[in-house]
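Appendix B. Extra example for self-study. Work through it before the problem class; the solution is given directly after the inputs so you can check yourself.
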Amino acid sequence: MQFVNLFLIRMIQTILVIWVVVSIVFVISRLIGNPETSLLPFDATNEDYERIREKLGLNEPLIVQYGIFLGDAVQGNLGYSYHRTGAALTIVADKVLGTVKLTAAGLIVALGLGLPLGVLAALRRGSPLDWLARLIAVFGQATPSFWLGLMLIFFLATKVSWFPTAGAEGFRSLVLPAFALGLLSAAGFMRLTRSGMIDVLSTDFIRTARAKGLNERTVIMRHGLRHALIPVMTILGIELGRLIAGSVIIEVVFSWPGIGRLMIESILQSDYPTVQAGLVVIAASITFGNLIVDMTYRVIDPRIRMAAL
Amino acid sequence: MSVSASTQAEVAAANTESRRRWQVSQRRRRYLLVAPPMLVMVAFIVLGIFADVIAPGDPGDTNLLSRLEPPVFSGGTSEFPLGTDHVGRDIWTRVVHGARVSLIVVAIVVPGAALFGTVIGMFAGWRGGIVGQLLMRYVDVQLALPAILFAVLLGAVLGASLRNVILILLVWTWTVYARLIRAEVLSLKEREFVLASLAAGGSNWWIMRKQLLPNVFNTIVVIMTLEIPIVIVAEASLSFLGVGAPVEQATWGRMITEARNYLTHAWWVMWMPGLALMLVALSGNLVGDWLRDLLDPRLRNLG
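Solution. Structure tokens for the complete assembly:
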């Protein structure tokens, strides 16, 4: 029952977020921008402008435009792309898989690098390994992801051609973008796991576990890690959002076919319907990702009360 | 056999003494560690302010006869200490003037966002009400969405100018202050000294100015420092994506974008602005971390 409530509340939140997104894009594109100027050539006549304004419904009062626009949006019609053929939502949907792949790979890098390094650094405090982990964390946190991507391309794709410089053909082309995307989050996960692990190792129940003769591996993995992971779980949702947001610039750097690159191209072409559809999909997936994280979080740590929404 | 009370006291004193000494040495070590990044930040500020003196040439001057000249330490001439790019512009001049653009953006965006975010955060925390709730919901939504997309959208619609970049980054970053300051004010609100002032008839304005502001001041300073590298990287990202400062202005982000095509045969074109950006971002982070530990360790898990 609690889960159902939580789910409903989050669904309402998601809808609200999408409404805000759609409205922001509406305001930006209709009030500040002129869709028609980007559609017509420089030497277009006034009649051309009039015709296209009529066709796009831009002659109605703004509030009527907004009403029509929201009505269409509710029915899942986010308009047709100005520059590509087809419904904006379909064009975006075609690119979803690319972004999902990249984000998932980024998350795997982030967790696969962050958690083990964090645990090892906590177990061997002050050792060279600890220093290395902290160095990685500092660099990962400070290096702009697009610059990291370009450095990876420079060293691993042009100096030695271990990986392709761009594109999305096969597993090898996913390695560099996933790493460039995941390192920032890996740094965050590492820091949290390290400090969580250090805290937990000095608690009584770890001493008890050791005293009753459990081997060190069980103590660390079963008793220690489980507690150290709770703070990691709390930021998992935020990090997922960050990864999705970060994938935009990484897709541009690596010419990866995903929503991010589509969006940047569409924005620069003033293709507002596509931009809108893309933002709605991204906003929905971020809030939905948060919902899933929230649910799992409550399964892992039942102490979280539902009141703490 | 029992240890006498005086010995115990001595041991305790020695313990505190050694711990104190350890803390002092620890602090000294941190000063040493933070010195190099501090120097980088100072160099960045000096380069930005005195760009015209340090690199008097025009960053946009092209010279097609000396395209893609290597830097002086890689077989080039001292005429172009860091080499030239694909249209023969001097990279040293451009990197220095790029520092100026970054500095201008930081100098306006960071205090501006801090001021706006603090005002909103204080209001939402102290008075709350429906307006406060709505403001915070908006902050939640904005913090949950990929800011870069909205920034690029705004940039494309508004057109490329330094003023627009500053505007976009202000909109992008004020929410961080608002959320944290609100949380601080919410907890300060319940503290005795604030309740006492309220009971003694202190006006809202007086309490905010004399009691809340001094107590959140450290937090504001810490966030501002941590935001410096974030704003620099954000500006570079916008330029990298082609919606930053206009073409005639040399920015690190745009230099990096333009250099991508020459990656294989003229590495310096990309590496010079890239290294500058990375160095400043890294140093800004380290200085920010240090200041946070010094002033407000509670903010450690800010992420």
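Self-check: Chain A touches chain B through 48 residues (CB under 8 Å). If your reasoning did not lead you there, revisit section 3.
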